Structures are given as C-alpha cells and as structure tokens.
Amino acid sequence: xxxxxxxxxxxxxxxxxxxxxxxxxxxxxxxxxxxxxxxxxxxxxxxxxxxxxxxxxxxxxxxxxxxxxxxxxxxxxxxxxxxxxxxxxxxxxxxxxxxxxxxxxxxxxxxxxxxxxxxxxxxxxxxxxxxxxxxxxxxxxxxxxxxxxxxxxxxxxxxxxxxxxxxxxxxxxxxxxxxxxxxxxxxxxxxxxxxxxxxxxxxxxxxxxxxxxxxxxxxxxxxxxxxxxxxxxxxxxxxxxxxxxxxxxxxxxxxxxxxxxxxxxxxxxxxxxxxxxxxxxxxxxxxxxxxxxxxxxxxxxxxxxxxxxxxxxxxxxxxxxxxxxxxxxxxxxxxxxxxxxxxxxxxxxxxxxxxxxxxxxxxxxxxxxxxxxxxxxxxxxxx
Length: 383
What we know:
Elements: H1 13-26, E1 32-33, H2 45-57, H3 69-83, E2 92-95, H4 97-109, E3 115-120, H5 124-132, E4 136-141, H6 152-155, E5 162-166, H7 178-191, E6 194-198, E7 221-225, E8 238-241, H8 247-257, H9 263-272, H10 276-299, E9 313-317, H11 325-336, E10 338-339, E11 341-342, E12 354-358, H12 363-382
Helix pairs in contact: 1-11, 2-9, 3-9, 4-8, 10-12
C-alpha cells in the first residue's frame, strides 16, 4: 500500500519524552514533569457537575456543526468581558480543540501550494498540519531582541498568502503588544494575506493583558481553546472567530470534517466559563511557579532566558551546556529525574541548543524539580 507524501510529517518529540518519562515512572522512579504543556489541574468543578447532570438528562447526540448556540453566545460574551469587543455570536465556531480550528482555518483560506508564514521557534504542529494539507510553511527566524516574535521587517521581503502568530507563544511565553500586533495585521492587509492569531494561552498572563487580534480588525481569524486557561486539555473543545463572509465556508467544512465538536465537552465548556474563582486560583499557582522558575533555573545554570509574559513555559538557550538538546533532555531525565522538552520540536535549526521548561504543574512539583536540577547540574559541573 502506498503512503502519501503529505502524510510524511515529523514526530512530535515532546510525546517521545512523555513516553520515556512514563516508562521511568513504571519502573518505580519519581519523575517531575516539566515537559508537558498542560495544566496539572482537572476541569473546573462546575464543569464536571454540569456534565454529570447532563449525562442523566440528555442523550448528548450531535450538535449543529457550529456548536451549541448557548456556548457560542457565552464565548462572544467573553470578548466583551475581557477585551471590550462587541462580538456577534454568529462569527463563533466551536471546534474539536484548537487543532480542529487550525484544520478548518487552513482549509477555508488556502489552496494547495499556498504559503503560510510563521515565526520560529513555534508550535511544531503548525508546520506539520500545513505540510499534510500540501501548504508551504514559510518559517521566519525570529530574533532574541524581538523576544522571539515576528516583526514586519523580517516579513516584508517574503511571499506569503497568510501569517500565523501566537501570543502568548509556545514555547517562549512572550507576547505581542497592541502596536506590534497591529503592525503585523496592517502588513497582511497591505499584502492581501490572511492573518491568523493563535490565542490559546489567553487568560494566562502576568504583568500585562494579552491583546486579541479582534481589537484591531474584523478581517482576521482568531483561534482559542478550553485546554489551557480553562484546564480542559483532554476534552478537545476549542473555538475560532471568523469574518462574517467566511462563516458559511467554515460551517460546510466543519459539517463534513467533524460533524461537530464533542457534545459532552461543549456542555462542560459552557459551565467552565463561569468558574472564574477556581480558574483564577489556577492562575495564581502559575504565577507563583513562574517566579520560582525565574529564580531557580539560573541557579541550575539555565540563565539565558527571556522572562515569559504569559502561558506556562520558559524557553532557555543552553548552547553553553550542549549542542544536542535531545540527548541533554534524556540526560536530565536519567540523572535528575526531571522531564523537559528539547527545542528541536520548536525550531529544527536552532533547537539543538534550546530547552523548554513547563511550569504548569503544582508548586510543590516545580520546587522539587528545580532542586533536582540544581543538584544534578552542580554535580555535572564538578565532573
């Protein structure tokens, strides 16, 4: 049987790290997880209660392709509450996680062979989904002085049909401010290119509030998810906001590709949006963990970092420690009992000398992980 060229995507290395960590735990070892980009907390209690009640009362069959009307309206309300944006619920599409939203956006906007620009380092599945759809990822090498975010000067000479940005970004946690995002939106308008904003880490911010592209233009696509701030990674519920003229196109694609997002997850997601006290409690844990990391990682020798504005990651340059981040991550797992992610997932060129540390777990876990890293690296330095 013939395998398609489009299916020849790269593996997601962090999943291999997770499997190695699982195997170590199965052998009886204690492992601190700093590789996993997901909250250590469950879905909010109110979400779980709402689903339990729905399971007793409802068959939870198909919903309409665009999602439960009540959930779409509640998502639109969030944009008013968080950003003072008056959003028509008709523009909201509920999706099977943000991954489903990327598939819908790329398929609705681009034809085979079109070029989509994105910054690197960046979330690896962007380029793999593009490849699987016969689209070309135009990777722009971002600079430390720009906090590893793309800027117009790096893009003006490039040919592209669309630009994808993430703020807060994975793996760096850095954000675009209003002026910076506006400049990129304006550049896309000049070029006649689509602008896609990945905002799945919105809500997880520290010194400043993240800017949504919807504050700047209606002619953009915004993608978000219940996975991060709402602590619902495995539920596979996300959403996208599209321009009015694109709603029917996306709806037709959603009908055929997915039928609908999981009904049970939509019920839970709707209730989760009103669990503000619990969600803000999770955020306070991330903030405490972030501070621990910013203080503790340099003590272990990981001192070349850009303090993250949001999300729950720190991206470190480890060129002074290794030229093989994958081998170094394996060494830290074996020697320190701490799982971290090699930067190769995020930047195939410069990622051999970078690591991503996640601080989404409990504060006790983060403190223990930092202690282990400090002890191991101190011993390594003496060798």
